[in-house]
Sequence to fold (749 residues):
Amino acid sequence: MTRRLIALAGNQNCGKTTLFNQLTGSNQHVGNFPGVTVEKKEGTVKQKPAMTVVDLPGIYSLSPYTAEEVVTRDFLVRERPDVVLDIVDATNIERNMYLTLQLMTLDLPMVIALNMMDEVRSNGGTIDIKEMERELGVFVVPISANKGEGIEELIERLEDAAAGKTPEGGPRRVDFCAGPVHKALHAITHLVEDGARRAGYAPRFAATKLVEGDPPMESALGLSAAQRDIVARIIREMEAELGTDREAAIADMRYVFIESLVRRSVTKDGESREAARSVAIDRILTHPVLAIPVFVGVMSLVFWFTFGPIGSAVSDLFAAGIDWLIGLAGSGLARAGVSEWMRSLVVDGALAGVGSVLSFLPVIAILFFFLSLLEDTGYMARAAFVLDALLRKIGLSGRSFVPMLVGFGCTVPAIMATRTLSSARDRRMTILLAPFMSCSAKVPVYAVFVAAFFPRHGALVMTALYFGGVVVAILSGLVLRRTLFRGNPVPFVLELPVYRMPSAKTVILHLREKVMDFVYRAFTIIFIGSLVVWFLTSLDWTFSMVDDGSRSILASIGSLIAPIFTLQGFAHWESVAALVSGFTAKEAVISTLSVVLPLGIENYFTQASAAAFLTFTLLYTPCVAAVAAMRRELGTIRWTVAAVLFQTGVAWLASAAVYQVAALF
Amino acid sequence: MNLANMKPGESGTILTVGGAGALRRRLLDMGLTPGTRVSVRKIAPFGDPIELTLRGYELTLRGEDAANISMRIEAGSSVERPAI
Fold:
């Protein structure tokens, strides 16, 4: 079997991830495109292992303005995939086809997957597939990614296209233009043909980009001064003839072609039920008055499910199971005659550390389940719409809301998600503020403290911590906006997709990815962290085992730093040790505390110092993985160090305030 | 008349799309081209951004960006019940 590379491209919200999951099942892995932190998912097709699918970022155009669009262009031009699989939302065909036309000028074999055909049909609409294939000269396959319909045929057509076949052997369409644009495009295509081929671009694509105005393309083609002059003159003439400018002319050309194609091939029977349902749902969810209480309510409900009675019951059960396993391992080692030293290393060091973190797996799974549900149903876009004006007040846009919200899951992807912001200013500011969103790794810390100190007010304390992080981010934003970050935020132009229920498969695969990532981190970073902390706590400077933790290496280091937490009420080496190891991963705060405080935290903290400790944990520098991501996105060590100091400084101030106020009661 | 002045329930046709750079390109890419019919669906709780319907889908953008788009309002479109 010949190896085939399939590039999956399409708009956001068109079911691209669902189709990718249908094609590849669980045979996928996640990485990054070289040099940038745009996520790259790759997988092999279940039925055809020789077929590799690369999931390109969801984009609306091939303009040179965002990292996603540039990555897509570069991938298609440099890797030259065997087939471009363009997924189009059939219920939103006009806007989706805009990208299709741009992909077609790349002159790569192509197949169009018309997704959500089940909705089109159930609303009494039809699409003349044959007519569309005739007009475009590429295979068009109606599918429903959600229901898994049409996938077999899609795979067959991908094979056909890769083998150089076209529908009925007809020619591929390259011309979407008429009138003055047509004249300009043809003239420029001839002019740049050789240069374009040398640079690896299809001449039509290069010419279209030149007419549109695309600085990276202009330099890639290496045009002579004379050629540049001719191109400029051709475009000036075209603009004069049309009475409009080059960008509008090309956009208009594409939409005019699409409109006529849609007129000929698509029939609709009134407004779709799904769209009508969305409007009805939005009467409440984006209502002028109700929208905000609804948002607060939705988030509270998510946190209640995760940390309330249901979540904690599942967690307790899971934790009991882990404790049982650790006990079993301990007695097993004893019976096998393993030395006490070794047994302590394995049981008290490695297993206790990893186990205490793993026991929070249910909480993380439940939280991610709800977050991905909110994202995939389309509610997140509404939240951005509702909250944009607020985020603007702190100098950000509703788009920054997405990285911020991802921050509730994990700071690392949150920081990576700032790549979608097209201005360095917004990116930096979001990176500085996103770590204040309480990440899921901090949940174990909260849960242990809540159980020990605030057992009857669990949900309240959790909500206070989450909203506390948001409030600190807002206050910091207000300060930063007036100091470091003057200037304007990025444009906010966002699609509000129709509300849809994601398929169970999509949710499960998403969840599995997060859970595996968490388990992987538990067994790598946290495992190593637990061992290091065990060594530091169980050995003294002569490397002999100590019975009393207060003579350990960590104790002497901790005692040195501890006085800076006098105002916070936890100026003891144990808490410093926990916070220091929390830098490897936030869950390690708890695993370290469980090692250095064998009698538990109940007698060590007071309610006030526990609250201050939680506040500090919420806000201080994110873990080493997140700092590495920050270093990469911010680009300079100076900015990264500044960010870490800024966050830790804010944490110090806030936790001091919490302790001083709480101690009054 | 520009798009930012329109009220929820009003419809119109785009005459020109002003502005420059990434923003303007994005507006055009999302289908806000001259001649396109647009209706304003609602305004966000804090008075901005606005929600539009065009080409069969929903788009949101800020008032200050919408002000770049000049419109010809359809007579009588404002009597439609606002879709709030």
